[in-house]
Design goal:
With about 180 residues, this protein is an alpha+beta fold. The chain has a domain of about 120 residues: Efflux pump adaptor protein, beta barrel domain (Elongation Factor Tu (Ef-tu), domain 3, Beta Barrel). Helices cover about 30% and strands about 40% of the residues. The strands form two sheets. The protein has a six-stranded antiparallel barrel. Strands 3-4 form a two-stranded antiparallel sheet. Strand 6 and strand 7 form a beta hairpin.
Length: about 180
């Protein structure tokens, strides 16, 4: 049975406009904060390597933090990684990144800080070989023995989320044309 119109009018009159205004104010503040983040925040864009492998263990003597005049040996691993050749202009000497050594096939462990020391274009294989070194000032974990494989991630850009969305839309429209 339909409700009489007078009951509907009474329920509308009972609504409190203060509650509605509070809800609208909170929603406006949240939407404004999200817009600020979306259009102005800088987020990192990372590129992953195709392949990465620890090459060798040159030892380096560094000062020890245990006391004055003391030194200890620090293993500074050299890592070779392979990236798509298109990354040639985005990867440069001194760029920081992360090495994720694989414990087992496909299982990545924690990140180790690395630094790009050299890039070598390999035109025959259409790849960019990148030499990196670890920059940890602690003993290198046992998992980083010569031959250890893993993945390198390098920060290649800082852009706003808005630009990331635009780039993805451009790529998807381009792919639809093909």
């Amino acid at each position: 049975m339909p409700r009489p119109f007078s009951l509907t009018i009474r329920s509308i009159e009972k609504d409190n406009p203060k509650t509605v205004m509070i809800i609208l104010t909170i929603a406006s503040i949240l939407l404004g904060a999200w817009n600020l983040w979306f259009f102005f925040a800088q987020t990192s864009v990372y590129e992953s390597s195709i392949f990465a492998k620890v090459d060798n263990y040159p030892e380096k003597i560094i000062p020890s933090f245990s006391g004055p005049g003391r030194t200890k040996k620090h293993k500074q691993n050299l890592i070779t990684a392979s990236f798509p050749i298109g990354m040639k202009n985005k990867i440069f000497q001194g760029q920081k990144g992360f090495f994720f050594p694989a414990k087992k096939q496909g299982d990545l462990s924690g990140a180790i800080n690395v630094l790009v020391i050299k890039t070598i274009p390999n035109i025959e294989e259409n790849t960019l070989l990148v030499n990196l070194k670890t920059i940890e000032l602690i003993n290198v974990p046992e998992q980083l023995q010569a031959g250890t494989q893993g993945l390198i991630k390098l920060e290649i850009a800082n852009i706003t989320p808005f630009k990331q969305v635009l780039n993805k839309l451009k790529k998807s429209q381009f792919n639809n044309l093909l």
